[in-house]
């Protein structure tokens, strides 16, 4: 989830409507690309979305995981992420960030607690492999949709 969310944010930052709406860039008609005029603002927007949310989520996730159990915490946070994703608004980014923090704090601990000592390393390696797979899926979807339509859509 965390890698997928971060990859999607990377794609959002290159959308022409978003860059002009947030004030950090403009669409260059001659090149057909978004040009970033204020990279500090662009980075600050991304940091505000993720840093407070993932930090709070990681701290909160440790407490939730200890209090209610790892599986229950993972289930509740996954449901919360699904509900947050249905809104698709700036608040969703904070919801996703908190969920990312919780899942990054709880899931590796749960995996190492439930795996036998002979397969523990494989479990952790599989988790990181799936993180990278989320990045790859998101980037290929963004790349594929970049050829869709007339490039005036707010979403592409």
Write up this protein.
This protein is mainly alpha-helical. The chain has one domain: MFS general substrate transporter like domains (Growth Hormone, Chain: A), CATH 1.20.1250.20. Helices cover 75% and strands 5% of the residues. It contains six helices and two strands. It has helices at residues 2-12, 16-22, 39-68, 70-87, 90-114, 120-145, and strands at 25-28, 33-36. Strands 1-2 form a two-stranded antiparallel ribbon. Helix 4 packs antiparallel against helix 5 (90-114) and helix 5 runs antiparallel to helix 6 (120-145). It is elongated and about 60 Å long. The mean pLDDT is 80.
Question: Strands, helices and their partners?
Answer:
Elements: H1 2-12, H2 16-22, E1 25-28, E2 33-36, H3 39-68, H4 70-87, H5 90-114, H6 120-145
Antiparallel strand pairs: 1-2
Helix pairs in contact: 1-6, 3-4, 3-5, 4-5, 5-6
Instruction: Give the percentage of residues in beta strands.
Output: 5-15%
Count every beta strand, where a strand is a DSSP E run of 2 or more residues: 2
Low-confidence regions: none
Average pLDDT taken over every residue: 80
Strand order of the largest sheet: 1-2
Tell me the helix content.
Answer: over 70%
The tally of structural domains comes to: 1
Biggest pleated-sheet summary: 2 strands, antiparallel
CATH topology: Growth Hormone, Chain: A
Radius of gyration: 18 Å
CATH architecture name:
Up-down Bundle
Level-1 CATH class name: Mainly Alpha
**Helix and strand run:** HHEEHHHH
Distance between the termini: 21 Å
Please give the count of helices: 6
Q: What is the 3D form?
A: elongated
Structural class: mainly alpha
CATH superfamily: MFS general substrate transporter like domains
């Amino acid at each position: 989830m965390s890698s997928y969310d971060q990859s999607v944010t990377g794609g959002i930052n290159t959308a022409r409507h978003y860059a002009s709406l947030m004030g950090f860039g403009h669409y260059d008609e001659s090149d057909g690309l978004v040009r970033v005029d204020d990279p500090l603002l662009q980075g600050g927007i991304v940091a505000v979305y993720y840093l407070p949310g993932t930090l709070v989520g990681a701290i909160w996730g440790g407490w939730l995981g200890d209090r209610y159990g790892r599986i229950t915490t993972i289930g509740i946070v996954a449901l919360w992420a699904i509900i947050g994703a249905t809104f698709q608004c700036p608040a969703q980014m904070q919801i996703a960030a908190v969920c990312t923090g919780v899942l990054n704090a709880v899931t590796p601990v749960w995996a190492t607690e439930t795996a036998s000592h002979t397969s523990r390393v494989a479990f952790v390696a599989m988790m990181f492999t799936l993180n990278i797979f989320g990045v790859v899926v998101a980037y290929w979807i963004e790349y594929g949709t970049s050829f869709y339509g007339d490039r005036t859509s707010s979403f592409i």
